[in-house]
Amino acid sequence: MNRTDRTVPAPTEGAATTAPPSIPFIVIALVIGVASGFGLLFSGYPDALGTAVPMTALGIATLCYLAAAVTGRRWVAWLVVGVGTLLVFAAELLDLPRWAVLAVTGVVLLVVGLVRRPRATTPQALAMVGFFGVAVAALALDPRLGLALAGLALAAHAGWDVVHYRRNAVVGRSLALWCMGLDLFLGLVCVGIAIAG
Q1: How far is CA 24 from CA 19, 30, 31, 89, 180, in A?
Q2: pLDDT, tens digit, for every residue of 172-192?
Q3: Which residues make Cβ contacts (< 8 Å) with residue 76, sequence separation at least 6?
Q4: What is the pTM of this model?
């Protein structure tokens, strides 16, 4: 068999065939992600940074991936950045725990996804349980330990972003890059603040 006879594997579900973004685009997306991390970092100013900040960031990030998987539409992930932020504000206004509102939204998406697109939904649901679950559990710990654990979970989510960026799957590369910058920056800052005390 010569080289022209080889078959090209079909792209994975949710993968696009677009070329990788240019270096300036990558840098801009990462910088915007870090800037978003700064915004979240100082959202509670002048109060001390608490475990709720990385937990909230992880809740919204994992909802973005889950919603994109459930709908099969990459742009939905960006929509969920805004919707997730509104859910957090609504939780604050109604005096409900943020984690509970984000978790209930995740369960609703999971149910819809298991009916519509189970193969695409399952990995994202497991990721939400893993990453977000650790951050929610961290709320029950000593504040410094909880902040460190939630920060580590958030920083680890950057690895999930890298996988999706490289595969160009589920979410758009722009969201994966933005999320990567935010997750890594904010997660490591949380860990650093927890250690510094």
Answers
A1: 14, 10, 10, 33, 16
A2: 998 998 898 889 888 988 898
A3: 67, 68
A4: 0.81
